[in-house]
Design brief:
The complex is a heterodimer. By secondary structure, chain A is mainly α. Chain A is built from twelve helices and no strands. The relative contact order of chain A is 0.12. In chain B, strand 4 (about 50-55) and strand 5 (about 60-65) form a beta hairpin. The chains are: A mainly alpha, B alpha/beta.
Chain lengths: ~290, ~250
């Protein structure tokens, strides 16, 4: 009897030891997993943050402020802001009806139209530049006829805007389409039964509800225009004051004046942060509206 | 008098409805989910087009396939209360109710006095400045009804107007709804799943089955329609369950 009891106690102790070692093993496994994920996250964050931080560290404040008076920097900043603003206006005016029709109606060839709208997102910008040159350049399919009337588009400020519209329009149209799709059709139907025409219902009901999404799409398109390089250099060239936007100026300055290149880069980084903050705020407000 | 005689091919069946609703009469439309009740309301409101047939209000054709008449929804003067109420979330309670008057380009002073009258009558004047999205379910229902009634409609369509309310509010609302609708003295069609709505609000009831009217009778007859009793009771239970859940969350 006593031997049996000792055996049972011994077995119990064995079990306790086993479960203790199991729980220690599980804890080590959990902690290792957590540590692994943390290291991965730190590495990924560092990969993005380090180059941005380096930009700030390598640009002394006095030289950056001095570069701000450089004519090339001023010209590039002025041209970039002007062309990006005009591009955004064109994209919003043309893209809003397209996005609304795409969100609400089915029509013949809709799939093809949607694919074409999305194409510039995937197409390499340099290819977009060559494509624009082949269409609107002096010897291009349309440009050839325009040239006969003395109209030349390539290598002008208009070409910069066209290149920017080409690459940035999908960013706005895709966001706008999603925003319109999120607006319940019942609102439009209710407006119509209350005597509103489709146009009146669009401007008084649909547009205000989708507004935050549209603004966030427009900001994304503005940011994409501001950073556009490949299509612009191919189709519009690199002429200071006429077609040399900020990314092109960075490329040019890098070959001689590093301070100017850093100064323009810093301006673009600050704008990028502002854009992300704005889009995040608007997306939050948009979600809040949709939740109601 | 509203006269409907229309046909429309839907995905799973053919909707073929022939019915009439007299001035001041409330017709309750009951039936299973997907039997075509809301589609019928949308066809009458002009939000969908029938394939063929005729819809006439007081002898005037709203839709006539033979005469090629199809009055657009905005010109039909229909008061429509949607199942979700569809109150414009970007507007205040006041602006929601005033919307139908603004589309009619009425003078501002007239709009103000009419909206004030309707909001006061519905007990909504105090919350006139609140965003439509931020008010309770019962208030939303009253705003939606006020918005539909203020345009002095020639016809009223209500799609499950009480389904979003809790059971206690439904009982009070039924009485108010019946009084408000009768005061308008226009034909009215109400879609519902709840037999209590049929008994308390309706003057007549129609059972719709796969796009066809299977039975017609008075509110008292509905209780004897064994076929639908089970179905609608199920919906009642399901609906009550949803309401309880909503209250809890």
């Amino acid at each position: 009897m006593a031997a049996n009891q000792t055996e049972i106690r011994y077995l119990g102790e064995m079990k306790n030891q086993e479960s203790e070692s199991l729980s220690i093993f599980r804890r080590i496994k959990d902690n290792a997993l957590k540590a692994g994920v943390a290291i991965l996250l730190i590495l990924a964050m560092s990969f993005i943050a380090l180059p941005v931080v380096s930009l700030f560290l390598k640009s002394p404040l006095d030289t950056t402020l001095r570069s701000l008076h450089d004519p090339m920097v001023i010209d590039a900043l002025r041209l970039s802001l002007m062309t990006s603003t005009l591009t955004t206006a064109v994209v919003v005016i043309m893209g809003t009806p397209i996005a609304y029709v795409s969100a609400r109606f089915n029509y013949f060839g809709k799939e093809i139209a949607d694919t074409l709208i999305d194409l510039p997102v995937i197409m390499p910008p340099a290819v977009a530049g060559i494509a624009l040159l082949m269409a609107f350049g002096r010897m291009g399919i349309v440009g050839h006829y325009l040239n006969a009337f003395g109209i030349s588009i390539a290598f002008t400020t208009l070409a910069v805007i066209m290149a920017q519209v080409f690459v940035s329009s999908p960013f706005y149209i895709r966001q706008a389409r999603t925003s319109f799709e999120d607006v319940d059709l019942a609102y439009e139907n209710a407006a119509r039964t209350l005597g509103a025409s489709r146009l009146y219902a669009f401007f008084t009901v649909i547009l205000p509800i989708a507004c935050n999404g549209l603004v966030s799409g427009a900001i994304m398109a503005f940011a994409r225009s501001l950073g556009e390089f490949g299509a612009t250099i191919m189709f519009a060239g690199n002429f200071q004051g006429r077609t040399q936007t900020m990314p092109l100026a960075i490329y040019t300055a890098l070959q001689g004046d590093l301070d100017a290149a850093l100064c323009i880069s810093l301006i673009l980084v600050v704008i990028s942060f502002a854009v992300i903050a704005l889009v995040k705020t608007l997306t939050k407000r948009s979600r809040k509206n949709a939740g109601n | 008098m509203l006269e409907i005689d229309i046909g429309k091919r839907l995905r799973d069946y053919e909707l073929e409805v022939e019915l009439s609703v007299a001035e001041g009469e409330i017709l309750m439309l009951v039936g299973d989910n997907g039997c075509g009740k809301t589609t019928l309301l949308n066809l009458v409101a002009g939000l969908l087009d029938p394939d063929a047939g005729r819809i006439a209000l007081n002898g005037k054709a709203l839709y006539d396939s033979d005469l090629k008449i199809n009055i657009p929804s905005e010109a039909r003067n229909v008061g429509y209360v949607f199942q979700s109420y569809a109150l414009f979330p970007n507007m205040s309670v006041y602006d929601n109710v005033a919307f139908g008057l603004r589309t009619r380009h009425l003078p501002r002073s007239e709009i103000e006095s009419m909206v004030k009258d309707h909001l006061q009558a519905a007990g909504l004047w105090e919350i006139r400045k609140a965003r439509a999205a931020n008010i309770s379910g019962g208030q939303k229902q009253r705003v939606a009804l006020a918005r539909a009634l203020i345009i002095d409609p020639g016809l009223l369509l209500l799609d499950e107007p009480l389904s979003a309310l809790d059971v206690r509010k439904q009982a009070a609302m039924r009485r108010d709804l019946r009084e408000s609708i009768h005061a308008c003295h226009v034909p009215c069609i109400i879609v519902t799943h709840d037999l209590r709505d049929v008994a308390c609000i309706g003057d007549r009831a129609c059972l719709l089955e796969k796009g066809k009217i299977a039975m017609t009778g008075g509110p008292d007859d509905v209780m004897s329609w064994g076929a639908i009793t089970a179905a609608t009771e199920q919906h009642c239970v399901a609906a009550s369950g949803e309401i309880v859940e909503t209250n809890e969350t």
